Amino acid sequence: MVGGSPDDLVIRSDAVGGITHGYLVRVEYGYICLQQRDIWIPSSPTTHPRLRDWLPIHPVISGGSLCLGLHVLLLVPVLLDPGAVLTLLRPEIPRQMIDGKQVSSNVTGAKADDDDVDLATTSNEADIIKILGYQPELKRNRSMFTLLFQSLAIAAIPYGFGGPLISAIYGGGQLPMFLGWIIVLIFDECIALSLGELASRYPTSAGPYYWSFQLGPPQFRTLLSFVTGWTWLIGNWTITLSVNFGFASLIAACIAMYHPDFVIEAWQLLLIFYGICLLTFLICAFGNRVLPEVDTACAVFTAITILVTLICLSAKAEVGRNSVGDTLGYFDNTLSGWGDFSFFIGILPGAYTFSAIGMISSMAEECADPALKLPKAMALAVPVGGVAGLFFIIPICATLPALEYIVGAPVGQALPYIFAAVMGSPGGGLALTVLILIVTLFCSISITVAASRCTWAFARDKAIPLSQLFSQVSIKHGVPIWALVLTTIVQMLLGLINLGSSSAFLAFVSVGVISLAVSYAIPIVISMWHRRMEVNAAPWTLGGKIGWVVNAMAVLWIAFETCLFCLPQVLPVDEITMNYAVVVFVGFMALSAVWYIVYARKAYKGPPASDGLKVER
């Protein structure tokens, strides 16, 4: 790999982002690569005692001509200090550009060694995370497309819409299913665009609580950040729980297709749920290197599932085909007890599908060029997923059986029941449901990864108990393993609610959507309070007038859906049909308040203060 004389060497090294070539000249602390524009650090670990945890993750600096790779280090007898290499070419570091615009940054109170990387401007990912106040710890192995695919995997259209489909049945049928989907797409895209601006200005895995801290007034920003962080964390945990519990419910519904007299006990459903949690944990803990490919496979398989469902339902239609008017506009307001308001109960599946769109921000520290690629992925996820969803929803609406027969579907899972009826046999229904189960498994993996990164980021800032443990990143596996453990344990404990309520799945869905929505709203409102000055300077922004309209629509929608997801699905309400979302949410927030009073108000100082990334326009 390295050859030539000591003073004129050639390096060819596998590196982060590609392969580098150049001629090396010996200097005091290392070698200068004369024909090199950027610095590349090989992904293979080094055994150097001072650098093994620091060097292989990201480049030392950006835009200079210094090249310190694994093979170069083998030629250097002594490297006194990692920071010393920066003194070699610091005056020669050029200004960096993003889309042709100069990018500036400033950080105060950072946890990283900012004296070592005192860059006026940068676009390098290692420097970006240091500017935001952290040290790089995770491998950046995701692109815009893999982030987009992960967003679509989290949305998991066939499961996201099909899992809580019973709400649309109680909500009146085809009209809220079709028209409600369109309405949800418009407003959720406003949320995605609003969050994209914030993620561009502050591209860190800390997400909403970091944004709230940077944007909030100095006297309140620590508390605002803490509240935002806990709602964000609760939302990540419970929305992940809803996916895994919905997965278990679908499996139980498949059993019921072949054994209609079989009534699954709550403890049996709980055991299936626990098995799914453990399976997902193992995949996320030990398969990190292939997870971007898993997200890509999920996007492809989701498209195949939608296409197969479209063809099969349209071809079979054993219970008949509805007219165009009924397919797009049938509405029965008698099933839920809510009257005409049932329409809004019926849009819950669509709102649930895209409720986790902001969770992708937790992957910011695993993405190259996150200031641009992350917001683009968030902005594309809703329209791409929305159009794909229509090809799944319309054939269901066109072949939907009578609503009164669906409301009694086993385990509250309408989709397998509909598939079996439309296909004319349990076998046909099972075949289509298996496709949904595979999509749900992909979704479970992707959303668990995102939730674990959220947990890790919040622990990194000392906001949760045992932060030192849960903020650790496994060097061997490249994942925050203990944060993943905590995420799994919390899900398994909350799953016990199912032993006392048949509407547990609705509660998990509702509290996840509510918590995520509140965590989105806080930084958006603060940004609007400051007249959008910070996001207008982000590398990716909506601009003035459009930004105001989009932000306002996002906040209004969040306020409405938060109230909507607190409501019970049917009236009258009893202890069985009650929506326990408010109880779970308030309980978690009460625990966080106790934790803040007892310890966190002294230990939690908020994330590092930073101006983030700004573009001089």
TrEMBL record:
Q: Which organism is it from?
A: Cladorrhinum samala
Question: Which membrane topology term applies here?
Answer: Multi-pass membrane protein
User: Which terms in the GO cellular component ontology are assigned?
Assistant: membrane
- List the molecular function annotations (GO) for this entry: transmembrane transporter activity
- Name recorded for this polypeptide: Amino acid transporter
Family annotation (PANTHER family): AMINO-ACID PERMEASE BAT1, TRANSPORTER, PUTATIVE (EUROFUNG)-RELATED
Any keyword Oxidoreductase?
A: no
Q: Please report a single Pfam family linked to this protein.
A: AA_permease_2
Key words of the record: Membrane, Transmembrane, Transmembrane helix, Transport
Q: What is its main location?
A: membrane
Cellular localization per UniProt? Membrane
The domain of life is Eukaryota
The keyword Repeat is annotated on this UniProt entry: no
Where are the bilayer-spanning segments? 147-172, 178-196, 241-260, 266-286, 298-317, 337-357, 377-396, 402-422, 434-459, 479-497, 504-526, 546-567, 579-598
Q: Gene3D superfamilies in the record, alphabetically?
A: Amino acid/polyamine transporter I (1.20.1740.10)
Q: Which InterPro entries match?
A: AA/rel_permease1
